[in-house]
Amino acid sequence: MEEESETNENLDFIFVTQEEQESSVEQPPEEWSSVEIAILEENKKKVLYNEGLYSPGSGELCAKYITVSNSSILRHLYYNYPPVADPGINEALLKAEQETIYSDDGQALYLHLCNEVNTCPVRMFYNSLLKSEINLRYYGVEDKGVRPMALALQFNKHVHRFNLTGNFLNDDACYHLGHMLSNNCTLNEIVLDGCRIGASGILRLGRNLHINRTLMFLSLENNYLGDIGGTHFAEQLLNTTVTRVNLSKNQLGRLTATALAEVFEWSNRLTHLNISWNCFYHVPSTIKMLEQLALSTCLEELSLSFNSLGGDRVANAIKNILLVPTLTLLDLSHNNFQKEAIDTIISNLLSARKLITFNLSFNPMTPQDAFNVLQLMLKPRIKINQLLLENVCVSKPFVALLTRVKKRKNRKNFVCTFGTILQNWTIVEPDGRNLILKRVQYLGMSKKTQVDTAMYLLSLAKEYSKPITTKEFQERTDADNVGLDESLVMGLVEIFPGPRTAKYRTINLNLIVEYVLRLWPDKKLPPTPPPEPEPVIEEAPPPPPPTKKGKGKGKK
Question: What's residue 248's pLDDT?
Fold first, then answer.
């Protein structure tokens, strides 16, 4: 008992736990906590207000809270401003951003895209979006500026022609232009001359060409396509609406000719084709392409200039092209057609009833070839009004025939250009004998030699009655110090030749003497003196016999 009393004395209080309440049970409203704050101490402002010594003001916000946003002030019972509404968080997180709708002309969209890629907009392009043509020739458009242009033209209903000549386009620019063609339904002509597209660029530019149904004219002149790029374009040309194509100056060759021939076999809708300034040297592939073009029923203009075409085989293929019923222009200038090839080509001119312009300029044609072509213009079935034969020499009968052609009723507006008119003059060249002999005579008058060369040649001819070899003549003149160099000696051999053998050439001195006497009739050798009689040699008298000395006689 004593131990229990001791423990009771040490306990100060006993903790009694309340009954556990479930969190899901809501308290009744009468037990909710009040917003009234129990003030243990008396408020000094209320005491002063009761005594009339303090005024709480008009109830408006304090000036120090004017510059503070609602969300940064804790809500308090004594501040009478509305609670903060949703600042836009729900709208930003739960609702999709409203898309900006631009007009179809593309002007507002173009400015927005230029601002997006941080490039300066082209004012001419912006203003021309409401016109029928956009002409940016040699404008220097940046590569990154092509994408805003292409997107602005996707749904444009005003522009029918887009010219970007002379603006260098990379692969990315070509990609965006190709993507634009898949949506645009207004553009009819695109000119990309001199844009340095290359084989990779044409692959991206023409990938959607078969989708577009309005494009009619595509110019790709001077774009370094090469045979690979030409093959890509030929494949893209299949099942398109493009009818006019310019592929000039693109180094196209054998592969391109074969690819175009395969395409024309299935789809031959081109009305205008320019493949000038290329490399169609391979005859079999070129003939295959020309044969497929000859089967066209809608081809109107064909340019094959500057391709070094020539020969009878190519001429036969071109002859069949003249049978196309709609052909109006055929350009064969700056090639190698002449003689038989020209006759082969013009043999079908009577069948080309709609051909108006026929260009054969700068071909190595003879005057007779030009005359044969013009002579066909006398036939009324041939409708040609422009016959171009620039830099082709013609004869006087050609001019007379041209006058006859222009007097015909169906040739009132006939135009024919040609080169030099060859006259029937006889060209007199200087006589080589005169020149070389006067030159030889002049060299003999020098102070070193002082030799009358004409007289020397006369005397030499007298000495050598037969033709003399070149070597012997050179050695003799050198020994006599006449001063004839090797070139003059060879000239004498050419002008006064003697009999020629397999080993050496000779000079006919008799021919030289004949012409020397024409030039200088006074040059004559002195007469040969008569032969002197041979002196008679007299025998010397025999010497006298020696005298014998006497014996016995001596000196006294």
Answer: 96
* Cα-Cα end-to-end distance for the chain: 229
Q: How many CA atoms lie within 13 A of 43 on its CB side?
A: 8
pTM over 0.85: no
Dist CA 117 CA 120 (whole Å) = 9
Q: State the DSSP H helix or E strand holding residue 301, giving kind and residue range, or none if neither.
A: strand 301-303
Give CA–CA dist 230/235, Å, rounded. 9
Question: Is the residue at 549 inside a domain?
Answer: no
Residue 234, both tokens: 């030929």
Kindly state whether residue 394 falls inside one of the protein's structural domains: yes
| In a shared domain, residues 326 and 218 | yes
For residues 364 and 476, state if they share a domain: no
Report for 11-20, 390-399, 543-552: range of highest mean pLDDT? 390-399
Structure tokens at 524: 């004559």
Q: What is the DSSP letter of 133?
A: E
* 397-410 tens-digit pLDDT: 999 999 999 999 88
| Higher pLDDT, residue 81 or 417 | 417
Cα 259 from Cα 265, distance rounded (Å) = 10
**How many domains, in total, are found in the chain?**
2
Contact status, residue 433 vs residue 495, Cβ threshold 8 Å: yes
Q: What per-residue confidence (pLDDT) applies to 1?
A: 46
Calculate the average pLDDT of the chain: 85
Looking at the structure, do residues 487 and 341 belong to the same domain, yes or no? no
CA 69, 72, 74: angle at the middle one, nearest 5?
A: 120
143 CB-contact burial (10 Å; exposed 0-12 / middle 13-18 / buried 19+): middle
Q: Which domain holds residue 455?
A: 432-519
Q: With both helix axes pointing from N to C terminus, report the angle between 453-463 and 509-519 in degrees, rounded to the nearest 10.
A: 140
pLDDT digits 0-9 by tens, 494-510? 888 888 877 888 888 88
* 132 within domain boundaries: no
Q: What's 242's domain CATH number? A: 3.80.10.10
Instruction: Return contacts of 174-177, CB within 8 angstroms, 24+ apart.
Output: 174/201, 174/202, 174/204, 174/205, 175/204, 175/205, 176/146, 176/147, 176/150, 176/151, 177/146, 177/150, 177/205
